[in-house]
Amino acid sequence: MAYQARAAVLREYGGEVSIETIEVDEPADNEVLVRTAACGVCHSDLHFQRGVMRHFPVPTVMGHEAAGVVEKVGKAVRGLQPGDHVVACNTIYCGTCDQCLNGRPHLCLDRMGPAARRPRGAPPRLQAKGEKLIPFTDLGGFSELMLLPERAVVKIDKDIPLDRAALIGCAVLTGVGAALNTAQIRPGQRVAVFGCGGIGASIIQGARIAGAREIFAVDIMDSKLEQARSFGATDVIDSSKTDPVAAIREKCGGVDYAFDAVGNTHLLCQCFSSLGPRGTAVLVGAIPAGEKVEIEARGFLGGEKSITGSLMGSNRFKLDVPYYLDLYRQGRLDLDSMISARRPLHELNEAFEDMEGGAALRTVITF
Fold this sequence. Notes:
This protein is α/β, with parallel strands linked by helices.
């Protein structure tokens, strides 16, 4: 039996997203069918739509920052049942490779495992008019229905509004996790965050939760800098008017951690230059494939500085998602203020325009 759902489909890089009726297959033994309640609009979606991330194929059902309600489960699924509220996450893991067994499931070497190995001639899991569709990052959240591996979702309590819960699946998991898991910021340390959109705001909140002494927020938009203060930034720097590296070094001599929340080679170099001795620059945003970073080598030796990446906040999402939602309940993690707009699915292209123009911190598509 196939299910029908409205979904946002991208058929060519750089083209507009079309809202189409698609067919969704029955869940296999280790899969769940989820009725989507909300899906956040992330810069990765925009990059993909603009043709920057061409390692993902088209035609594609877009979206990946989603939460919803379980509709049906495969016969081998344990711990989930219809009616459960869940958050989806694209760091799907096998549970048996070296990375998983060493506590790094976000770096899984066989992320889809047996679920990806379909019999020859089997019908597509998602299709429209007989044409196979690929779910973006194996989720496809801009659809009324998502067909997901059991290890792509985590059950959450039903008291959490699903539009807030959706943010945990990418922006918060990535940003808060970069601060708490990747950097492991300690109380009293100094932090700089370059780029104060949804990811940057989450890094700022993670740094505040970790007890950072100073948090420098760097952006070119006054509105985002003002929001950064509300999320915990102690200092804000308009980099269109002020050299952020000079301002940071004048104030404190250099930070312990500097985060590139955008994915920009120039910003990553600024992050590295703003570090104090033994500081670490953390790349959180996605720099387009093929771009190179040129760093003065003396900083590595003379100051023992380093650069590292953070993939989806170095998460163990089955543990992190419930933890972050507890922080939300306690009033320590602000999800409410991160949502700048809610739009229906047919306004996804307008949501992309808002994001590209800097008007939105996080738009959530609601179903």
